[in-house]
Amino acid sequence: xxxxxxxxxxxxxADMVKPGAVVLDVGMNRDDQGKLCGDVDYAGIRQVAAYIxxxxxxxxx
Length: 61
Known about the structure:
- The protein contains one helix and five strands, in the order E-E-E-E-H-E.
- The protein is mainly beta and about 60 residues long.
């Protein structure tokens, strides 16, 4: 299991993850468009990991 709480967007990439790993993305960052994103490269890692948490979701009150 990998828990990514680095505070930098997309710092964890697919080549750093063993096939079948569980990845928890607890980082909250903003991309160039201001949209929330996580510490992991979700698109790449979802091809390798068995389970991955989704990128943070912006909450509406």
